[in-house]
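Example record used in the benchmark description.
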Amino acid sequence: MAAGAPRRARRPRQSPGLAILAAGVIVAAAFLARVTLPDTLTNLSNLVFDAYQRALPREWSPELPVRIVDIDEASLARLGQWPWPRDRLAAIAEFARDAGAAAIVFDFLFAEPDRTSPEEVLTTLADTPARRALAKALELSVPHDISFASALGETGSVIAAALTQKPGGTLPVKAGYAVAGDDPKPFIRRYAGATAPLDVLADNARGIGAINWLPDRDQVIRRVPMVLSGPDGFVPTLAAEALRVAQGASTYVLRASNASGETAFGATTGLNAIRIGAFEVPTDANGAVVVRYSEPAPGRYVPAWKILAGEVPAEELKGRIVLVGTSAAGLFDLRATPVAAVVPGIEVHAQVIEHIVSGGWLARPDWAPGLEIVAAVLGALFSAVVVAKLPVRGALPVALSLSALFCLASWFAFTRQGLFIDPVFPAGTALGALFAASATVIFSKERARREIRNAFSRYLAPDLVDEVAADPARLKLGGEMREMTLLFSDIRGFTTLSEGMEAETLTRFLNAFLTPMTDVILSRRGTIDKYMGDAVMAFWNAPVDDPDHASNASGAALDMLAALKTFNAEHGETAKVAIGIGINTGACCVGNLGSEQRFDYSVIGDDVNVASRLEGLTKFYGVPILAGEATVAAAKGYEFLELDRVRVKGKKTALTVSALLGDAGVAAEIDLVRLRETQAAMLAAYRGRAWDIALSHLADLPALSAGRLTDYAAAMGYRIARLRTAALADDWDGVFDPESK
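Model output (structure tokens):
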């Protein structure tokens, strides 16, 4: 080197001791978490495997020998609400029999007699000559349960039972069990009691299967048991029994640890597989199958109404296992799987059978935990050495590549071998070791160089006060235009109510009322603008963006009515109250409004006034919640009904007001189609001055709305009575002009 030439600074060699020590601490922490927080780690692993299944679901083929006869919304609309008469279910079973189905499986618990059967209906009638005449006329009628039992006996039928933790009840034995190896009972989910189907149905069915689910803690069904333990011994699940009956098999063979060909080195480790007819089904130690799901496939379903109408070709069911269940949301048999957030429970049974028949097994081998531990330790050690030998910015991509390698190996095992090898524990441990080792190395350098240590300290995260101080714009006056939803709520007749209370009692009463109302609004992501005595003003979509602001406001209004019921039940001795709620959506100005000395975060605009007017109009229409047109259009998942056209105070243009009937679940309580048709006909007659026709439709509204529109019908009837005697202008258009706010 030439004299006087600058010498290249050498990176100080870093002893790997501190980095390895830090990695060791992380490994110890990882093992401690594995022991003390197994559910948390399992949830993380489940998320990974769910992502695998969504990325590469099992392919569904129309050739698979499973079909679902679906009691769907269309079938309920055509044939009536559930439960159906069981002679109708018998007709479905007979159709499947005649079509040559291998088995027909009913995913319903028939634990009580059919209440729609003639003899059951007779028991509800008083002993009168008319009843005796009806009984005589029905003497030759066949009870529905007998018809259903007869159909079950003529088919390869399977019906459902439920196992319970409450002692009592027994289940008929439909199949035998042979155990090879150790006794698996200690590993199989145990139930103390059972709810069995009716004896007449159980005696005629070829199989009885339990419908108990064993979801994970997040309520996702990843594993489905093939066998459970009931009060009298082993109990097959519905899917297992369907597969057995379809093959005409009579016995289950349970292969447990230390059976012939099963090596457990003398340890008792539970079940390994269950033989069902020609199928050897690998299971976990508890007798459950890890299901490889396909995406929901419409071709898997056959609507029940088409079966009963004879519109399904026999070839569609021939040789197949036919599962009868429901996808109707109102019957609440909905589940979550790794592939779909919501599927009908009957589809889970179908997918289990398809999974077994297609042979695409998924398994978590006994050696997987050991392999994951070894990979975690080696990965942590590798990360520590890399950090010690390379600059941190160079070590990071190397260690990240190692973690990616773990994930790729796990993906390869899943896609090629059908194995669950958890990448979370080794990859997480390696990354944790990387960051811990990096922090340790950096900290050791900081101690040697005070100026670097001081610079590092400035990167600590600021607290909330610093965040506010760093953003002084939050403290300035001003606002912005935003699409928002407004809600006004007020107690009906509060002035009269408060006259009978002392000031202290009134204050306690108002505080007790406003607290649950506030909780409801805040839980639905609303912002409380202000309290005005007994009234509440709230808004959505500010200061935090809320794309579902109309839906959240509508849900809050319904929740407020539910909270009011609780409030009245608890404070009824003081006074029972009713409230009116107005909801409107539109462009408003929101921000810090006021003076330089004092301001509030609030909202102003024409649509704010409309929301207030709508709240006032609830007393005219006799409904608790009124909504404007924009809210009705934007609130997805909620049911509204147009009530009138109104020209509110301060506005020249008429607006359509609608009542909020409920969320999507209200369809199970009332016939929305008929209600809307009747209301539309009433409004058309009213606006056309056909008073008698309007009144006739009004008379139907209370029953069609399950009482929701009783006061509305009375109010409109009173208005029509006044209009009949009034001198209406030729251009009268039916718009209501309220005399007050």
